[in-house]
Automatic annotation (TrEMBL), chain A:
<protein>
    <recommendedName>
        <fullName>B9 domain-containing protein 1</fullName>
    </recommendedName>
</protein>
<keyword id="KW-0966">Cell projection</keyword>
<dbReference type="GO" id="GO:0036038">
    <property type="term" value="C:MKS complex"/>
</dbReference>
<comment type="subunit">
    <text>Part of the tectonic-like complex (also named B9 complex).</text>
</comment>
<dbReference type="GO" id="GO:0060271">
    <property type="term" value="P:cilium assembly"/>
</dbReference>
<comment type="similarity">
    <text>Belongs to the B9D family.</text>
</comment>
<keyword id="KW-0963">Cytoplasm</keyword>
<keyword id="KW-0206">Cytoskeleton</keyword>
<feature type="region of interest" description="Disordered">
    <location>
        <begin position="213"/>
        <end position="234"/>
    </location>
</feature>
UniProtKB/TrEMBL annotation, chain B:
<keyword id="KW-0206">Cytoskeleton</keyword>
<keyword id="KW-0966">Cell projection</keyword>
<dbReference type="GO" id="GO:0036372">
    <property type="term" value="P:opsin transport"/>
</dbReference>
<dbReference type="GO" id="GO:0007163">
    <property type="term" value="P:establishment or maintenance of cell polarity"/>
</dbReference>
<keyword id="KW-0970">Cilium biogenesis/degradation</keyword>
<dbReference type="InterPro" id="IPR010796">
    <property type="entry name" value="C2_B9-type_dom"/>
</dbReference>
<dbReference type="Pfam" id="PF07162">
    <property type="entry name" value="B9-C2"/>
</dbReference>
<dbReference type="GO" id="GO:0060271">
    <property type="term" value="P:cilium assembly"/>
</dbReference>
<protein>
    <recommendedName>
        <fullName>B9 domain-containing protein 2</fullName>
    </recommendedName>
</protein>
Length: 234, 175
């Protein structure tokens, strides 16, 4: 790769799994891994990890803190298959066996920039995620869900044996296909924060940020662009 | 040709009468647009939230389009369904939103509606469930044949969409 005509772009991700909000559970740890398309390859950093076990503090009964670092760099030629991070949370049940307490996934932010610590530290973890996401672009609060038993008999036996259904591969939560057969129950949130740096995306012609004033999503699509049947001359 | 990437998630929905919901979704474009790769329709998981009103789907979207023109900018159309404990499904809402036309990360809230039947149908619906559905789902994203349709407001679907555009500036398109 020469500096003048790049063929790949780089996506550098620094961040952390800050913590979680699970009203019903305690003593939890989490695992993370990345799911990405064929054109993508990690160039440095760790693709997966397991956190420590954390408990709720006495002063913040809803807040579980992991403060677990994420550092990885990807290279790619095509934004398709943009990396997603898959997080799964585990904790002991009443018999002391580790069972899953939630799976969740989100895309890595596509725009370079960093999260604003000020906004986060003044808001408790239990605030509605969507409002907070509007405030700070690179904090993601992702919903966590567990698969449900498909039949009442299975539900009964899983209750009797203290084993609940799990995904054999947590990466299915990052896939759009075959989701219609799963029934899940959402029961908590995990908060992630990211600092994103991209290299050579602009040079390859990719725009990931609005150039001038930011348009809101309610802005009508460029309907008045030229005569009705005009196509771009390409 | 200009390229458009849509990368994001259908996060979930709230404000519906029941919270055990799933969603069928699809993307509709004009003739100048060509799908290079990615899924342009699908169905989410069913979420039965243990707490709260909002059902979460976290359904990923990752689509790559090329286009020769701006007409027929992609529209995302949604159908929200309720699944009860016996596995029976009932339509809860239709909605659509335009895919944002500027690059970057967007939070999109899509409002939904449901056809309202005659008063006899409404009474029947309160007791046995069900209700009228659209015969042609094109009506969800077209404004041509909406007149005479009587509808009622339903909940809101939340989406997070990242837009990456390529070579639009080469043709003088300002987004």
């Amino acid at each position: 790769m020469t500096a003048n005509s790049p063929s790949v772009f780089l996506l550098m991700i620094n961040g952390q799994i800050e913590g979680a909000n699970f009203p019903e559970y305690d003593d939890l740890y989490c695992k993370y891994c990345f799911v990405y398309g064929h054109d993508w390859a990690p160039t440095s950093g760790l693709e997966e990890g397991i956190s420590q076990i954390t408990s709720k503090g006495r002063d913040s009964p809803h807040r579980l803190v992991w403060n677990f670092p994420l550092e990885i760099t990807f290279k790619s030629t095509n934004p398709l298959g943009w990396p997603q991070i898959v997080v799964s949370v585990y904790g002991p049940d009443t018999f002391g066996n580790d069972v899953v307490r939630g799976y969740g996934a989100t895309h890595i932010p596509i725009t370079p920039g960093q999260y604003v610590p000020l906004i986060f530290s003044s808001t408790p973890l239990s605030t509605p995620p969507l409002i907070k996401d509007l405030l700070s672009r690179h904090t993601r609060t992702i919903p966590m869900f567990v698969p449900e038993s498909t039949s009442r008999l299975q539900k009964f036996t899983s209750w009797l044996l203290g084993r609940r259904p799990e995904f054999t591969d947590p990466k299915v939560v990052a896939q759009g296909e075959g989701r219609e057969v799963t029934r899940v129950s959402s029961q908590g949130f995990v908060t992630l924060s990211f600092n994103i740096v991209t290299k050579d995306m602009k040079r390859l012609g990719y725009d990931t940020t609005a150039t001038e004033t930011t348009h809101t999503h309610t802005h009508p699509v460029a309907a008045g662009f030229g005569p009705g049947n005009q196509t771009l001359s390409m | 040709m200009a390229e458009l990437h849509i990368i994001g998630q259908i996060v979930g929905a709230s404000g519906f009468p029941q919270n055990s919901l799933f969603c069928k979704w699809g993307i509709h474009t004009g003739g100048a647009w060509r799908l290079l790769s990615g899924l342009k329709e699908g169905q989410t998981q069913v979420d039965l939230p243990s707490t709260g009103d909002m059902a979460y789907w976290s359904h990923p979207i990752d689509i790559h389009y090329t286009t020769k023109g701006l007409q027929g900018w992609p529209k995302l159309h949604l159908q929200v369904w309720h699944q009860d404990s016996f596995g029976r499904c009932e339509l809860y809402g239709y909605g659509y939103c335009h895919v944002p036309s500027s690059p970057g990360h967007h939070h999109v809230s899509c409002v939904t509606w449901r056809p309202l039947g005659s008063w006899q149908e409404q009474i029947a619906q309160t007791f046995v469930g069900g209700g009228p559905q659209l015969r042609s789902p094109d009506l969800i994203y077209s404004g041509a044949d909406r007149y005479r349709l009587h509808t009622v407001a339903m909940g809101t679907v939340e989406l997070e969409l990242g837009i990456i555009m390529r070579h639009f500036d080469r043709y003088g398109v300002e987004s």
